[in-house]
């Protein structure tokens, strides 16, 4: 089963990276688009993301009680995996 990938904006970098994901939903009766948002706690291994960065987060196995997302991209640049840096192809 493919992992879900969401795009959002970092709203806090104090503890975990809190990512706010906005989406537009059509109202079922009035057919007007409404903005809905939700905050996710995402794992950032190297703590490089700052407030206001646009990030892509990917669903992963549970890391803690409420953290099941990891940061994949920051401002369009892919995050480098620390385990794969030293491995030569």
Your description of this structure?
There is one protein chain. The chain is mostly beta strands and 89 residues long. The protein is built from no helices and 6 strands. A 5-stranded mixed β-barrel has the order 1-2-3-5-4. The two termini are 27 Å apart.
Q: What is the topology, as strand order, of the major beta sheet?
A: 1-2-3-5-4
Work out the helix count: 0
Overall shape: globular
Largest sheet: 5 strands, mixed, barrel
Taking all Cα atoms into account, the compactness measure Rg is 15 Å
Give short descriptive properties of this protein.
89 residues, single chain, mainly beta, 48% strand, 5-stranded mixed β-barrel, 6 strands
Compact description:
Helix content is 0%, strand content 48%. The protein has strands at residues 5-12, 17-26, 33-43, 54-59, 69-74, 77-78.
List the SSEs and their pairings.
Layout: E1 5-12, E2 17-26, E3 33-43, E4 54-59, E5 69-74, E6 77-78
Parallel strand pairs: 3-5
Antiparallel strand pairs: 1-2, 1-4, 2-3, 4-5, 5-6
């Amino acid at each position: 089963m493919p992992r879900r990938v969401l795009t959002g904006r970092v709203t806090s970098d104090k503890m975990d990276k809190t990512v706010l994901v906005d989406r537009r939903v059509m109202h079922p009766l009035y057919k007007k688009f409404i903005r809905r948002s939700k905050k996710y706690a995402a794992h950032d291994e190297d703590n490089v993301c700052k407030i206001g960065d646009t990030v892509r987060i990917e669903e992963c196995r549970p890391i803690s009680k409420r953290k099941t997302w990891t940061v994949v991209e920051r401002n369009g640049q892919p995050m480098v995996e620390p385990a794969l840096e030293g491995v030569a192809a």
